[in-house]
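Annex B. Sample input.
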Amino acid sequence: MTDSSYDLVVIGGGPGGYVAAIRAAQLCMNVACVEKRDALGGTCLNVGCIPSKALLRSSELYAEAQHGLEEHGVKLGSVKLDLATMMARKDKVVSDLTGGIAFLLKKNKIDHFVGTGAIENATTVVVSGANGKSTKLATKNILIATGSESTPIPGIDIDEEQIVTSTGALAFKKVPKHLVVIGGGYIGLEMASIWGRLGADITCIEFLDRITPGMDSEVSKNFQRILKKQGIKFKLGTKVTAARKTRAGVTLTIEPAKGGESEQVKCDAVLVSVGRRPYTDGLGLDTIGVATDERGVIRIDASFQTTVPGVYAIGDCVPGPMLAHKAEDEGVVCAEIIAGQSGHINYDAIPSVVYTWPEVASVGKTEEQLKEAGIDYKSGKFPFTANSRARASGETDGFVKILADATSDAVLGAHIIGPDAGSLIHEIVTIMEFGGSAEDVARICHAHPTFNEAVKEAALAVDGRPIHM
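Annex B, continued. Sample output.
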């Protein structure tokens, strides 16, 4: 057992952890980063955000080559899928990026330990390596950035081959004939889009009576309509009570969420995607007295410090949205606070994106949240059917909606479903961060012809004066 001493030991090498380690090193701290995977980057880079986006892009191109090019005057012969090459490309994207993070840690003189980290006390982390050897790290501060894992469904055993989480869904060796997705959230719908484009029949089973329940309901309804048009079938208000595996596939038993007759659904594979939960197993939180809530979420104060002084936590294992960019920002701010500086995160201005096509992006409050809070607001909406660039591109599904305070005109939220929504939303994120108004957006000169003009028109619509509608 080797002793080393640090100013900060970060447990977890995902987006929150490695970014926190880099920022702490920039602030002249002696830093170690502990990661159980051989590759850095956490769930996001290894089996989440990055590989899924690589496959989403590849599947978009495949679908466009099959169905979308003829109207542009581009005629192809028979289009064939080479899934092995598509997967190899995805794996290379992942390896290039994870290798890049390893280089960044080395560049910033951060010690990288491969193994499972456990907190012995507030100043000691023990790293258990795959070879059975342990290394004890003495430290002034500890940062927990261990992320999250897929939430299981009782009675349904995951084997990552027939019944999979998103990890297995990113590694199918062949396209399932029929894929059932349990859960109508962001991750499940992205996976459904990938495999649906590649030829699978998709059935999405959702316990609630709508998909993407946290999303603005008007956007959610339009989103479901578009996905249905793309071939995804939905069974809403439905729960899965059992799953039986056979050589031929999986047989699910389902029934109405509110009770009723059960039925069976046969498929080749099942994706369980009903949310994520904090991953803190084996950390020793109970031993040292770090408090969590009933869902395992670590309790922190405004400085990201847990109930144990000197032990901090960020990312998916603390309250707030489970988003890589939220974890990154928390990592930066936490490192700055540990260094004696001040930091700031505006949790009302954190965007979220669904990377289907069209994309769906949002920031701030939904109409339902504003109504529930009793806030008087104005709404401005503009459809992409009236946007010149969308027309020229043949991407006319969706709209931009901006919500502003009825008195001050301050932007309270924005919701976009349409082409490149994940990029368009950032104009509104910036406006909200600076406390701007819908009028501010409306008075900014937007280049023509761009998708961004739809954002300006929605801002004009808040005041009832859109030009092109």
